[in-house]
């Protein structure tokens, strides 16, 4: 059976008058793991028994980044599933897109992560080394730009 995990691609919009395009001010939150290769990823984690996928995404975001569901706005119409092997077993990760209501909200990391960064799309893709994560960030960005 496949391992299931869920998370949120968190973004914020920087209020800058100098920026003419709405999408110029979008930054994505990536967390650096304190284990393994110290890769960068949006907050995500395994589904607990009795939890639905979206509950998992919000719980993991609270645990890993200190962001409460009340501090986020879930973006309707965006959901992405990634499939890849981990230690020889299939894994499915489902992501939703959520905006931080206040772009100055403090991030509080758990011991699972050692650093966080708010990054524009291009830099977020450089930090997220995996191609499927880079493609997901680009797809999420295009989704936001098309709204």
UniProtKB/TrEMBL annotation:
MF terms in GO: bis(5'-nucleosyl)-tetraphosphatase (asymmetrical) activity; nucleotide binding
Cofactor: a divalent metal cation
Alphabetical keyword list: Hydrolase, Nucleotide-binding
Top-rank EC class of the record's enzyme: hydrolase
EC number of the protein: 3.6.1.17
BP GO terms, sorted: AMP biosynthetic process; ATP biosynthetic process
Catalytic activity: P(1),P(4)-bis(5'-guanosyl) tetraphosphate + H2O = GMP + GTP + 2 H(+); a 5'-end CoA-ribonucleoside in mRNA + H2O = a 5'-end phospho-adenosine-phospho-ribonucleoside in mRNA + (R)-4'-phosphopantetheine + 2 H(+); a 5'-end FAD-phospho-ribonucleoside in mRNA + H2O = a 5'-end phospho-adenosine-phospho-ribonucleoside in mRNA + FMN + 2 H(+)
CDD domains assigned to the protein according to its UniProt record, in alphabetical order: NUDIX_Ap4A_Nudt2 (cd03428)
Lineage: superkingdom: Eukaryota
Stretches assigned to the Nudix hydrolase domain: 1-141
Pfam families tied to this protein: NUDIX (PF00293)
Role: Catalyzes the asymmetric hydrolysis of diadenosine 5',5'''-P1,P4-tetraphosphate (Ap4A) to yield AMP and ATP. Exhibits decapping activity towards FAD-capped RNAs and dpCoA-capped RNAs in vitro.
Family to which this protein belongs: Belongs to the Nudix hydrolase family.
Protein name: Bis(5'-nucleosyl)-tetraphosphatase [asymmetrical]
Species of origin: Urocolius indicus (Red-faced mousebird)
């Amino acid at each position: 059976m496949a391992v299931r995990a869920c998370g949120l691609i968190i973004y914020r919009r920087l209020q800058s008058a100098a920026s003419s395009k709405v999408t110029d001010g979008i930054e994505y939150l990536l967390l650096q793991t304190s284990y393994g290769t110290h890769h960068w990823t949006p907050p995500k984690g395994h589904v607990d028994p009795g939890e639905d996928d979206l509950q998992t995404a919000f719980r993991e975001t609270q645990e890993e980044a200190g962001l409460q569901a009340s501090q986020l706005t879930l973006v309707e119409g965006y959901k992405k599933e990634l499939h890849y092997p981990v230690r020889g077993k299939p894994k499915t990760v489902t992501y939703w897109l959520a905006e931080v209501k206040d772009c100055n909200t403090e991030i509080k990391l758990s011991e699972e992560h050692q650093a966080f960064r708010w990054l524009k799309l291009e830099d977020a893709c450089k930090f997220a080394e995996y191609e499927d994560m880079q493609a997901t960030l680009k797809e999420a960005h295009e989704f936001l730009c098309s709204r």
